[in-house]
Amino acid sequence: MVLKLYNTLTRKKQVFKAIKKSQVGMYTCGLTVYNYGHIGNYRAFVASDILVKYLKYLGYKVKKIVNITNVDDKTIKGSIKERKSLKEFTRKYEKAFFEDEVSLNIERAWKYPRATEHIKEMVELIEKLLKKGYAYKTKDGIYFNIKKFKNYGKLARIKLEDLRKCARINSDEYDKENPRDFALWKFYDNEDGNVFWNTKLGKGRPGWHIECSVMSTKYLGQPFDIHTGGVDLIFPHHENEIAQSEAGNAKKFVNYWIHNEWVMVNGKKMSKSLGNYYTIRDLIQRKFNPLALRYFYLTGHYRSQLNFTIESLKNSQNSLKRLKNIISEIKDDGKVNAIYLKKFENAMNNDLDTPKGLQVLWALVRDETAVGKLKTIKKIDSVFGLDLLKKEKVVVPANVKKLVNEREIARDGKDWKKADKLREALFALGYQINDTKDGAKITKIWNRKPKLPLS
Ligand SMILES: [Zn+2]
Predict the structure, then answer these.
(1) Cα of 99 to ligand 1 centre, how many Å?
(2) Dihedrals φ, ψ of 114, to 5°?
(3) For residue 86, is pLDDT > 90?
């Protein structure tokens, strides 16, 4: 029984074999920090986190790199609009990104390199590409010549001829040989404000794709084991990463490409104009526990589209609460349950089948005759990251206590309306009341206080 992962490069489920015996190098395309990340972004980050946690479960050390894209058209535009320096503008969203990661129980990566701090290395790779004839200079920038790289299209399975036919970019706009040739370096123009670097290549700034080629291999070497991201990044971003790195360094770039599918909202693609766009912060403000979102992500296989609705998130939140309640009643009962753990591993080894894994978890907690539940749940939760065993030490503030007492009195007097109102008031303060035979049980809706937007 071994871990199999679906590799986009081969379009097959393959047995995972690390380059080094017990250590995995992994790169996840991070956030462009011009805005708060949305639930589509975080599906990718949670999927990558599940993979990290499962690799650790299997005994590997994992070196994960997540890049911070802090220079591109959007970040420059945003900083100019807000009359802030690029650094000041992007650091706000960078901080928010880290807060969101914490609230979703995403383990800290080994490093979070920033694009702006790796300009020197990007210039070096671009110079290499120029020297080898894979790149050319025009009036407005330095471009990668995709015709020169014979494997171009191998990840996305796209042929050059098709690309030329369907290229939507008007080639007149740019001084490029092929409309799909992409910028490695953009020469300075006025729209960049005060964002530029004076380098051997000329005054300007890097293209987007080059940062991932450079920052992944700087820290992980080439080739490295796993590169992850959303399916929307396969083309052109990841295709271009391969082209740059393999043309520049003349060896394979990455062994396993893992891509997660979209999150749809109410059956539609998420977009701000449709009003179906959610950040983690939006959900917290609606009193959702971020871990309910994590649970929701786990209910779908990462390679299937997931349809998000507020209703489905409520269901996930209820399921998570129920699960935690049942678990809180379990008494410690000895060794790990090998049968259930095996079932869990079978699910996860099959390309990280988290929906199946959740089924195993539910079957375990409901199985009245099973032994070793708590230790088994602990192992499973080391991968799922749902804080299933975390005892919430609830220090109940006086104002909350007062509301709880009032509610008890209302219930004793059978004033259900008032009792419900008080329950809602408590929820707004971040407390959930469960009525048990021993009286009202108070739980905190979230374990760590997630920070709300700074502005
Ligand atoms: Zn990337």
Answers:
(1) 21
(2) -95, 140
(3) yes
The rounded percent of the chain whose pLDDT value lies above 70 is: 94
Question: In this prediction, what percent of the chain has a pLDDT beyond 90?
Answer: 79
Tens of pLDDT, residues 26-85: 999 999 999 999 999 999 999 999 999 999 999 999 999 999 999 999 999 999 999 999
Q: How far is the CA of 191 from the centre of ligand 1 (A)?
A: 24
The tokens describing 233, both together, are 């990044």
Give residue 443 CA to ligand 1 midpoint distance, Å: 40
CATH, domain 17-260, list 3.40.50.620, 2.30.30.50, 3.40.630.30, 3.40.50.2000: 3.40.50.620
Identify whether the C-beta of residue 184 lies closer than 8 Å to the C-beta of residue 210.
yes
211 C-alpha vs ligand 1 centroid, how far in Å?
7
**Cα(445) to centroid of ligand 1, in Å?**
34
What's the average model confidence in pLDDT over 139-159?
94
pLDDT surpassing 90 at residue 442: no
Instruction: Tell me which of 324 and 162 has the higher pLDDT.
Output: 324
At 373-413, the pLDDT tens digits run: 999 999 999 999 999 998 766 678 899 999 999 999 999 99
Question: From ligand 1's centre to the CA of 30, what distance in Å?
Answer: 7
Give the Cα separation of 190 and 74 in Å (integer). Answer: 15
Q: How far apart are CA 443 and CA 277, in angstroms?
A: 29
Span from the CA of 424 to the centroid of ligand 1 (angstroms): 43
Ligand 1 centre to CA of 400 (Å) is 46
The C-alpha atoms of residue 328 and residue 419 are separated, in whole angstroms, by 25
Nearest to 254, CA basis, from 293, 216, 218, 219:
216
331 secondary structure, DSSP code: P
> What's the CA gap between 204 and 71, in Å, rounded?
11
Instruction: Calculate how far, in angstroms, residue 22's C-alpha sits from the geometric centre of ligand 1.
Output: 25
Domain ranges of the chain: 17-260, 264-384, 398-444
